[in-house]
Design brief:
mainly alpha, about 210 residues, 11 helices
Length: about 210
């Protein structure tokens, strides 16, 4: 197949899956396999990663008002008088730092798993089941809303996320990086719901995190 046509098809796959809690990398690798692109090809392996840059670059535009608020209230955060570790931007920095550094050390493992359709497919399937189960468990409390007695959900807004939750989410994102096919946003949403975050707060967190330095 012509490389330009292949790139167009893969671009459509990337665009349709990037902003959903599914792994765009997994869908790209599966699409490449279906179009007889060797998964071991260094060029196409890098292509599957670089093509996601466009989605990352659009995030500062989408979250421009939120970023402007973070910058204007730094370092105290929107809630005045807070120490730096409690500032609204700090949890995202904690998450990014704990996600990025260990993942870099596992580059070879990640690259190897990108070549395995079995790893990618299994991670995609298992990740979807895990997210569905966790969301189903939390659904009644989501419907009940804030202030419900006995509710396990105590973080309803993204800006209320604390450092412990961010560290836990970062650890789960390391896991998702090691096993391509485990959606980064899926792991963030499921991990967030497990530590008391609402679906909305957990959903917004992974899409705003890449836009932070």
């Amino acid at each position: 197949m012509n490389d330009y046509l292949l790139s167009l098809i893969l671009g459509i796959v990337e665009g349709l899956t990037e902003f959903l809690p599914v792994s765009s990398t997994a869908h790209l690798r599966i699409a490449e396999q279906l179009m007889h692109v060797p998964l071991s090809s260094g060029y196409w392996k890098m292509y599957s990663i670089v093509i996601q840059l466009g989605a990352i670059l659009v995030l500062p535009i989408y979250f421009r008002q939120h970023i402007a608020k973070l910058v204007s209230t730094f370092p105290e955060g929107e809630k005045k008088g807070l120490r730096l570790p409690d500032a609204s931007a700090q949890p995202r920095h904690d998450c990014i730092r704990r996600d990025r550094d260990p993942s870099f050390l596992l580059t070879k493992v990640i690259g190897k798993n990108l070549e395995s359709l079995y790893v990618v497919g299994a991670a995609l399937l298992i990740g979807g089941i895990v997210m569905w189960v966790i969301d189903a468990m939390k659904a009644p409390w989501e419907k009940a809303g804030p202030g419900t007695p006995g509710s396990p959900i105590h973080t309803w807004k993204m800006d209320d996320i604390h450092g412990g939750q961010a560290i836990w989410i970062g650890a789960c994102q390391i896991f998702s990086a090691v096993f391509p096919g485990t959606s980064r946003s899926m792991s963030t949403i499921a991990a967030g719901q497990l530590v008391g975050m609402s679906r909305a707060a957990a959903l917004e967190f992974p899409f705003s995190s890449p836009s932070q330095p």
